[in-house]
Design a protein that fits this description.
The chain is an alpha+beta fold and about 525 residues long. About 45% of the residues lie in helices and about 15% in strands. It has 16 helices and 15 strands. The chain has helices at about 10-15, 45-50, 55-60, 65-70, 115-145, 150-155, 160-165, 190-200, 205-210, 210-225, 230-240, 350-385, 400-425, 430-465, 475-490, 495-505; strands at about 5-10, 15-20, 20-25, 30, 75-80, 245-250, 265, 275-285, 290-300, 300-310, 315, 330-340, 345, 390, 390-395. Strands 1-5-4-3-2 form a five-stranded mixed sheet. It has a four-stranded mixed sheet with strand order 6-9-10-13. A four-stranded antiparallel sheet has the order 7-8-12-11, with no helix packed on it. It binds protoporphyrin IX containing FE. Protoporphyrin IX containing FE binds near residues 24, 26 and 31. This is Acyl-CoA dehydrogenase/oxidase.
Length: about 525
């Protein structure tokens, strides 16, 4: 952390113990805290108590390492003949902490699934996330500000928006992270990497605010638009970041029970328009979107319409337990006139459009949920290793080790299952995926979010009050414990997905008897 090449002996540091000159040592770096004492969020007295001393242990018991980067200007040099021991991660770095990375990224472990292009992509997107996305994400998460247009433009230029939709023709010829991967080569493992790396910002509200509406909504346009040039226009607008799009299915009347939707679309007498009336609730990104991919009731069934924001469309923010950065909204459609050309798929057969979207959405959520859980494990391992209580490190208590063992096992098991399912996705056409994988993906998502529930619970117990505090050392634990439920509800509640998995397994049950 030392920003200056000056060196001091420990004796010299010991002479600076007054309000006129107050120094201390943290990890071999010498800090001049004279002008900082008044401003220290932890108060003045604690700094006076360590004046002239080595405060390394006290510091790491109370602060995250990143505090030192933020206040690097207080460093005046280092202790003669000593070197800083604590690792300061640089953007893009892999974590050396055990279980902090999936096995395929840990030295000594092999995986049959990942090729060079996956490794290149992982490096590039991690660097992007650490360097650019995380600082904005952390700020938006706490202030509730929506993602900036600059960030959207940046992601568009790097093809990150395109990659969010998974493999497909929309990636052909697109520059993906300056050539990290060719669009034709992009498979579901690349997709998994993008999802997992982006969720490392540890900002669950912002994570959805980061174009989740587009991720789950634009696929319906790409797969079901009836006119190619219209499809291209919408896709270009959204991929370029000029227009924002979200998926508007859920209503106060119907959540996981899609068939219960009540928003109606009636055709005008001349057959050129639909008139849409109804409401939508909990719609991610709704407050700032231009297009709404909307589930509506049309006479004999459900249909899906792309509704542009305009006369009769109103959105208002819904306060949820995660950040307003997600743009979660309530939408009202009052006599909204929508051209029939905006129909996606066939009239009255919209359930097919809606359901075909679900698998990818649920799988993406499983990717994110496991990755965030993993970072929580890393946080807990670091904390248990550095926290001193009752005269020992937390990790020296068997009860803490047992909690960690359970958390690690859950994460590793789910990541392995995720990779197995992903491998199947890579080897099945989209139609077969819907047939064979809807059940397993439902069970996988359920497993990941049940695990998240256990992990959040144990993590807070390990962290105590810090796990309930939005700033400071346990901020990620607090965020996770407050928001892990979003993955357990959005995209299909755990119970509904578990049920789907078992029902699908029973559909072609053999005549097998005990
Ligand atoms: C370079 C030196 C230091 C800097 C830049 C610094 C900065 C900060 C900051 C930013 C916070 C707010 C909480 C957070 O963001 O983590 C904080 C809290 C605190 N600091 Fe420091 N600090 C330094 C050294 C120390 C030392 C040596 C001690 C104790 C011996 C100390 C004791 C505390 C305490 C008790 C809190 C409140 C912790 C809590 O609320 O959980 N600080 N410090």
């Amino acid at each position: 952390m030392a920003s200056s090449s000056k060196t001091f002996t420990r004796e010299e540091v010991r002479e600076h113990t007054t309000d006129d000159s107050l120094w201390c040592i943290i990890d071999s770096t010498v800090y001049d805290l004279t002008d900082f004492v008044d401003a220290h969020p932890g108060g003045e007295s604690v700094l006076r108590q360590v004046a002239g001393q080595d405060a390394t242990t006290a510091f790491y018991n109370l602060h995250r390492h990143e505090v030192l980067s933020k206040y690097a200007s207080l460093a005046i040099g280092s202790v003669q003949g000593e070197q800083a021991q604590v690792i300061t991660p640089l953007p893009g770095d892999l974590s050396p902490v055990p279980y902090a990375e999936p096995l395929w990224l840990s030295s000594h472990f092999k995986s049959p699934y990942y090729k060079d292009s996956h490794r290149r992509l992982q490096k590039a997107i991690r660097h992007f996330t650490d360097r650019y996305l995380t600082p904005e994400a952390q700020e938006c998460e706490s202030t509730g500000r929506h993602i900036s247009q600059e960030m959207i433009d940046h992601m568009s230029r790097l093809g990150i928006l395109h990659m969010r939709l998974g493999p497909g023709k929309h990636l052909h010829g697109v520059n993906l992270l300056d050539g990290a991967v060719d669009g034709q080569e992009f498979d579901y493992f690349h997709d998994l990497i993008v999802s997992q790396e982006l969720s490392r910002t540890m900002t669950r509200g912002f994570q959805d605010g980061n174009m989740a509406g587009m991720t789950i909504g634009l696929t319906a346009v790409l797969n079901f638009a009836r006119d190619q040039s219209w499809k291209k226009k919408i896709a270009d607008e959204v991929f370029s970041g000029r227009k924002k799009l979200c998926l508007a299915i859920t209503e106060a009347f119907a959540g996981s029970d899609v068939a219960g939707l009540r928003t109606t679309a009636e055709k005008t007498a001349d057959g050129k328009h639909y008139i849409v009336n109804g409401t939508k609730k909990w719609i991610t990104n709704a407050t700032w979107c231009d297009y709404f991919v909307t589930g509506v009731r049309t006479g004999k069934g459900l249909s899906v319409l792309l509704i542009p924001r305009g006369e009769g469309v109103e959105t208002k923010a819904i306060k949820t337990s995660y950040s307003p950065a997600a743009g979660t909204g309530y939408i009202t459609f009052d006599n909204v006139k929508v051209p029939v050309e905006n129909l996606l798929g066939e009239e009255n057969k919209g359930i097919h459009v809606i359901l075909s979207n679900f698998n990818h959405e649920r799988w993406t959520m499983a990717c994110g949920s496991v990755r965030i859980s993993r970072t929580i494990v890393e946080e807990c391992l670091k904390w248990a290793n550095q926290r001193l209580v009752f005269g020992k490190r937390l990790i020296d208590q068997p009860v803490i080790r047992l909690k960690l063992a359970k958390m690690i096992s859950l994460v590793e098991a789910n990541q392995s299952w995720l990779e197995t399912v992903t491998y199947q996705m890579c080897h099945m056409p989209y139609k077969q995926q819907a047939q064979h994988l809807a059940g397993p993906i439902g069970l996988l998502k359920m497993s990941c979010t049940r695990a998240a529930h256990e992990i959040a619970d144990e993590a807070v117990q390990i962290w105590g009050g810090r796990g309930l505090t939005q700033t400071g050392m346990g901020k990620h634990i607090e965020m996770f414990n407050r928001t892990y439920k979003f993955d357990a509800i959005l995209g299909g509640a755990e119970e509904v997905l578990g049920d789907l998995g078992v029902r699908q397994a029973m559909r072609n049950f053999p005549k097998a008897m005990l």
